[in-house]
Structure formats: structure tokens, C-alpha cells
Amino acid sequence: MNFSSTLLENAVAEFSRLPGIGKKTALRLVLHLLKTEPAQVDMFAETISKMRREIQFCQQCHNVSDHALCNICATPARRQDLICVVESIRDVMAIEATQQYNGTYHVLGGVISPLDGIGPDQLNIETLIQRASNNNVSEIIFALNPNIQGDTSIYFIQKKLAHLPVKVTAISRGIAFGGELEYADEMTLARSLQNRLPVENFVRQ
Amino acid sequence: MNFSSTLLENAVAEFSRLPGIGKKTALRLVLHLLKTEPAQVDMFAETISKMRREIQFCQQCHNVSDHALCNICATPARRQDLICVVESIRDVMAIEATQQYNGTYHVLGGVISPLDGIGPDQLNIETLIQRASNNNVSEIIFALNPNIQGDTSIYFIQKKLAHLPVKVTAISRGIAFGGELEYADEMTLARSLQNRLPVENFVRQ
């Protein structure tokens, strides 16, 4: 690309560092900002900068937070004895969107993946064991993505939890709602058969 | 979306104001920035802010510039008697990328489009007429997108230029290189026939 302005070129370079944003998209975004009021562009820049500098990670569950304890951990109405273990902040948002869970979370910050160089030490596993050692915790629910890394992480962590009087569960897997048996992979279908449930569970109440 | 942090929510809201960026993409970008060094995020924010505050539009051609005159207008080697009229900065970049043009430009900032409420007064037409009135200008080349708005703009502007001793041309239209006659629209094919050129033009030199 031939830029007649270094200011423009630098702005495009900064945008194209973001994941999934190529040079052409970056240029489109920058040209949009050029048409935007300077005060609004400053607002955009300040909001991003401030977010990165001031955001905290919840001391208890490692979720993003504006305070030392996140909104979820700090809400007395949420069951502190229930801990849902997830890979990332995004999974917390996905589960919160269902409005079906009123316990707390524990964000691992990833899953065990030796090929990517991610071992247990890089994840928030130690703090989970500490939380689980607390007398008041009754159940730990694994809600990790159903793949080898997720299963490896469940296996590793549940071994560390084995000596504790805590119930350990994982969210069920099977054919997704609206999915078709015909197109399900064999692994999913086989597990779905193995882990069959009483019909009562499917009758709406 | 359920955000556990207002800082995060605001950053996502700012990103999703950009064209073509939805809430999900905005969240992905913000989570990427969360993993980036704070100093680098500040650099991103500052570059954008600085670009918007300090960028100028060339006094002569209205292209973006770091100075009062853009690099192209300020280069003595470029022919000042040749003015290529384009719709936007992006078109300047596209033509510069061909490395086949060594004149100057004139960025209209849009095209006449009554349906979008864009009339001649909102475009940089007056300054073009002034430039063309200068004795030293020999040719004005229209390089607007081939559509009704582009053609309307050419028609309007060339009428204003009619009294001046300036040659007025427009870039040729026809079947694109690598295109197929079979799939060309009738308008393009008909024009391409009408404006046929001597074969010498197609022999590589």
C-alpha cells in the first residue's frame, strides 16, 4: 500500500495487528475514524487504554472484574458452594447468558495442551484446589470444551481433587438441540447412548 | 451479553461502533488486547488518537497528508499539469499502486448522489475548477467508479470545465483483464465495442 501520510500508515499498522484484521480492513476502519469527530476518536482510544490499565482479575475466580472481587463472586445470592470450572471469560459469559446457573465460577485461563506448551502450572489450578479444600464447597462442575485438551484437564484436576469430600461433575455431552443423529460424529453418538437419561428429564415442566 | 466488568463492556461497545465489527468480533478484539502488554495497548490508543488530531488534508488535492501539501503534490518530479480526479483517498492508493501515473490528484470526497443527499456543494468541486483555471493545467482525467453517480459527477463537472482550454478525459471502461466476454454485462460489452482501440495498444512493448 502507498500511503501519502505516515500518521495514516501507523494507524493502519496498529489496527492490522489485531487478530483477523488484515491491511484492507484496517484501512477501512481508519478511514471511518477519519470521518468521526476527534473527540469521539479520543474517547475510543481512552476507553481501550483505561480498560487495559484498570481491569482486574477476580482474586477468587480469575474472571475479569472492575474490583478485587468480581460481580458474581461478590453477589450474596449466588451459591458459593458451587464452582463451575471454565476455560475462559467467554465461557462465563456463555453460561451466564443461559440464566440457569446461580453458583460461582473458576476461570482456568486455558486448558492443558502440551503441544502448545501449556502445562498445569500456567493455569489457575492451584487456586481451584485451595477453594475446593474449603469446607463450604459441595460441588465442582467442569464446563470445558469437549476435546482432548479439555478431557486431559478434567482428568488431571479431578485427580488432584480426589482426596477432598467434594462432588465432581461435568456438563453432559450429546446431540445438540436441533441437531440430527445422521450427521453426529460417532464419538458423540456413542457417548450419548452410553449416558442415556430417564425420559422424565425431557418432559417440559 | 453479560459482562462482569464495566470497563470490558465499554471497550466492547467502542469497538462495535466500527463498521463491520459486531459484538462478538468486538469481544474477541478486546480479549486479545487484554492479553497484550499495557504499554502496547497505550501505543495503539495513542497512535489512533494522534492520527485523528494531527492528520491534515492537502490544501491542493484534499488527499490525506502529514503536512499542508501532500507528498504527491509536493514532489517536483510529478507533473502538476495533469490532474486525476478520484472519489476517495482509497482510489489514490489504488492508482499509486499501479506505478503508471506521475501526475497529481484531486480527491472529490465522494460523488454526486441526490438519493444519499450528496450534492455538488458537499464535494471538492470548486477547488478543482480553480486548479483547472490555472494556465499550467493541460489535462484532467476522471477516474471515478463506473456507475450512475460517477457518470453524473463527470457530466456535472465537465460542464463547469467546458469554458476552459483544458483537455478532459476519463479512464477507459471495458472487459477487465482476465475477465470473460461471456459473463460481462451488456452495458460493459457494448461500450467496449464502441470504444474499440487500435491493436497496437495491446502489443506489449
From TrEMBL, chains A, B:
Residues 81-176 form the Toprim domain. A zinc finger (C4-type) spans 58-73. InterPro entries: DNA_Rcmb_RecR, Rcmb_RecR, Rcmb_RecR_Znf, TOPRIM_dom, TOPRIM_RecR. Keywords: DNA damage, DNA recombination, DNA repair, Metal-binding, Zinc, Zinc-finger. Signal peptide: none annotated. It holds the Pfam family RecR_C. GO terms for biological process: DNA recombination; DNA repair. GO terms for molecular function: DNA binding; zinc ion binding. Belongs to the RecR family. May play a role in DNA repair. It seems to be involved in an RecBC-independent recombinational process of DNA repair. It may act with RecF and RecO. HAMAP family: RecR. This is Recombination protein RecR. It comes from Phnomibacter ginsenosidimutans. The gene is recR.
